[in-house]
């Protein structure tokens, strides 16, 4: 699990709410206002929200990559299980599944001890950073912003590797 337990905040403003129960629909509005105790400017809060959404989108993309890796790995393992031991296709499928798992474990913590192991990969680092940014109303720190750039580049590289595994390598196995 990634230590990102809450979603990004929504912007200040007036929102329409609708409650539906059976045939009855109730509609109203709610005004979201900043906490009057916060020392942060509207510009800093808006920047925090944009930054949180950027991190949220990065986590969403990484989650999709990891879930797809698992699906591809499991599919390759299932297909190879029905083949004879000396079958070249079985070897190709097993090798492909092993490569997918090796890549997955390079971008997400896979230790059975979970968070207690202290293992941190790209997903855990992004989740921790996201949790830190959404946990504060104010402008993210310069070090947090710099960290986003570093982790963003790692995500781009991971997506590129995934595209090779899900594209060229999968095509080779399928052939």
Jot down its keywords.
175 residues; 2 strands
Would you kindly provide a written description of the structure presented here, covering whatever features stand out?
With 175 residues, the protein is mostly helical. The chain contains four helices and two strands, in the order ββαααα. It has helices spanning 42-81, 88-107, 122-134, 142-174, and strands at residues 13-21, 24-32. The longest helix has 40 residues, at 42-81. It is elongated.
Structure summary:
It contains four helices and two strands; from the N terminus they run ββαααα. By secondary structure, the chain is mainly alpha-helical.
List the helices and strands and how they pair.
Blueprint: E1 13-21, E2 24-32, H1 42-81, H2 88-107, H3 122-134, H4 142-174
Antiparallel strand pairs: 1-2
């Amino acid at each position: 699990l990634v230590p990102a337990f809450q979603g990004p905040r929504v912007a200040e403003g007036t929102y329409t709410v609708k409650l539906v129960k059976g045939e009855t629909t109730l509609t109203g509005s709610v005004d979201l206002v900043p906490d009057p105790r916060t020392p942060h400017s509207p510009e800093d809060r808006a920047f925090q929200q944009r930054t949180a959404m950027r991190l949220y989108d990065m986590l969403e993309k990484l989650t999709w990559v990891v879930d797809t890796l698992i699906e591809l790995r499991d599919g390759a393992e299932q297909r190879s299980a029905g083949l004879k031991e000396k079958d070249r296709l079985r070897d190709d499928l097993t090798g492909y599944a092993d490569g997918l798992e090796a890549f997955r474990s390079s971008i997400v913590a896979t230790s059975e001890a979970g968070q207690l192991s202290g293992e941190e990969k790209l997903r855990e680092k992004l989740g921790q950073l996201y949790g830190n940014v959404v946990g504060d109303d104010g402008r993210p720190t310069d070090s947090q912003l710099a960290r986003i750039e570093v982790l963003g580049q790692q995500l781009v590289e991971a997506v590129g590797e995934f595209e090779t595994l899900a594209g060229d390598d999968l095509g080779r196995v399928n052939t």
